[in-house]
Amino acid sequence: MPDSVQIGANVFLQQGHALLKQAESLSVDFEQAVQLIAATQGKLVVCGMGKSGIIGRKIAATLASTGSPSFFVHPAEAFHGDLGMITAQDSVLLLSYSGETDEVRRLLPHLQQLGVPVIAITAVAVSTLATAADLTLHVDVPRECCPNNLAPTTSTTMMLVMGDALAMALMTKRAFQPEDFARRHPGGSLGKKLLTRVGDVMHRHPPSCALSAPFRTIVNTMTHGQLGLSLVVDEAQKTLGIITDGDLRRAMEQHEALGQLQAHQLMTPDPLTIPQDAPLGAAQEKMARHQVTALVAINPQHVATGVIRLLDLCT
Q: Structural domain of residue 226, as residue ranges?
């Protein structure tokens, strides 16, 4: 194995071992931290310097998007006005590998004056930060992956995963659902799947033909409809079946006398339906499960109101 590949593999192994050891050592302090954050009336304010600050930003973002209001304050900026962002209703999460980071330590008396509870994440259990904090989450870092044991590597991974662990425990405690996640991510694909309804994107007046419609009429109907399908309806406009362009191709392969074929011979009877108020994700799941590319949308009275295609879910 090339040296660089071996070095890379060792990084994964070293950090993996550290994480497994950490998982076995989580204590009641972790549970108390979850309870404290869950009981916070305001927001969880996250602070850290350098690489710990970068990890802190990610932790704050993860918490905020998973139901625990949170934001990041840079410790240096805190002394130039950003302390005003922290209120007595908040809790504070401080990150420092050594527990002695000067900018973080200097925050402590101001936070104590505000009366806000402080949670520390640090690798040094006997440190200024650990001593002053209300709760300390100790990350056990046997050694950084850096050959010189200097660059923050294992330590930042441990902090990051500790933050993820807090966020996931809080999600479970708050019974946070996919719909809640989607409301915080309306611009993402998950938000679209869960918040957008079938009725928002369905085609309300799909092409249709009668049971006795000949092949040529069906082709013309589908060509003008430009949806690659046609519903088959009775005289009362009740949907009896559906014909797709795939049905037409199969008919052309299997029949020579195409002009003699009628809609009732080509259609799939009783097509699959989906409520028009169902989320797009439900439509996508149903299409995948039944291996179809279109569904008939229905209203609460089970009357067809349109069609939705797999293509509509991709735009």
A: 198-313
